């Protein structure tokens, strides 16, 4: 059995997918690379098949009708045979030295006495044209090089685990029953959220493994694109609120972390709606909070009256300007978008 299955969701990715695949091939026979062609109209399918033919024991090409990023991840999970599972987007890549350490650590954990559900590592914002690269690391939030539970997680405000940080145990993903929605952007937030109550044991390896490319004009995290697709961001936000509401938490620490994550996602929705600058967008902002209030009054109060929630709902045009100004400062500091 392979140690690690890696799914690469690809849609019209001919221009950059080879760089991604080549970086992952360095894992050799310990890995299974699932290149998921999500109904592409360019040479993506041809490239995937060529790699699968050249590396038949490592690479598998999976072809499907277009279902969006979430359905491509779903296909990866369905086809994964490795003990652990990771998603690497087709315009991203991994660091070779960190990759070797990841695989070595996974091997040691598999041979150890405890079952680790999630391995966490750092990622780097590879922002096009940026003078410095922002590293998302967790050394002050998580124990390093040891197995730990949720009671040892101490995330500061604004710090959270993204898909790029996470490797899950494959069987856990099957057990939790997560099914990402089709034809929806921003579902990586659900991927990094819904399985968490099933995660009992974690391990943090302080290496800069994942390289997250930012800079394409058509990229889903581009601010102008996010505003254009704001209905999809809102849909994901509502789904995450539903997941939280329906979860039977048996650990207060994972509940606290997931609440903080949902607070951030709701703030992102709010800032994009404010940035849109239309009355329709402001109405959608109110409707989002109304939806959460109707579903779960306790959750609504936690989100609406948190520090971020209060900032997102400062009254009047002046309040919205202050909110946007604060966002721009964070944008510069954290290096996103």
Automatic annotation (TrEMBL):
CDD domains given in the database record: Glyco_tranf_GTA_type (cd00761)
Keyword Disulfide bond: no
Keywords: Glycosyltransferase, Transferase
Boundaries of every Glycosyltransferase 2-like domain copy: 5-106
First and last residue of the signal peptide: none
Protein name: Glycosyltransferase
């Amino acid at each position: 059995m392979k140690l690690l299955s890696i799914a690469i969701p690809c849609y019209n990715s001919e221009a950059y997918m080879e760089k991604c695949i080549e970086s992952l091939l360095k894992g050799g026979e310990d890995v299974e690379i699932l290149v998921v062609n999500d109904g592409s109209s360019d040479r993506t399918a041809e490239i995937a098949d060529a790699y699968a033919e050249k590396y038949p024991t490592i690479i598998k090409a999976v072809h499907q009708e277009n279902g969006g990023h979430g359905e491509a991840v779903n296909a990866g999970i369905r086809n994964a045979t490795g003990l652990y599972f990771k998603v690497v987007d087709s315009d991203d890549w991994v660091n070779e030295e960190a990759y070797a350490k990841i695989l070595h650590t996974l091997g040691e954990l598999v041979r150890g006495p405890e079952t680790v559900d999630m391995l966490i590592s750092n990622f780097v914002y590879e922002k096009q044209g940026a003078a410095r690269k922002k590293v998302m690391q967790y050394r002050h939030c998580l124990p390093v090089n040891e197995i730990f539970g949720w009671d040892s997680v101490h995330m500061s405000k604004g710090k959270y685990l993204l898909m790029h940080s996470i490797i899950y145990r494959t069987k856990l993903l099957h057990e939790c029953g997560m099914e990402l929605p089709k034809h929806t952007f921003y579902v990586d937030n659900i991927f990094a959220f819904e399985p968490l109550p099933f995660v009992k044991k974690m391990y943090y390896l302080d290496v800069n493994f994942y390289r997250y490319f930012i800079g394409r004009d058509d990229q889903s995290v581009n601010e102008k694109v996010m505003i254009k697709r704001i209905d999809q961001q809102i849909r994901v936000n509502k789904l995450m609120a539903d997941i939280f509401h329906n979860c039977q938490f048996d650990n207060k620490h994972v509940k606290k972390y997931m609440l903080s994550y949902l607070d951030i996602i709701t703030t992102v929705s709010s800032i994009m709606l404010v940035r849109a600058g239309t009355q329709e967008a402001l109405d959608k902002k109110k409707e989002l909070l109304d939806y959460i209030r109707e579903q779960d009054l306790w959750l609504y109060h936690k989100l609406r009256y948190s520090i971020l929630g209060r900032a997102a709902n400062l009254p009047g045009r002046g309040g919205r300007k202050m909110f946007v100004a604060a966002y721009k400062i964070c944008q510069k500091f954290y290096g996103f978008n």
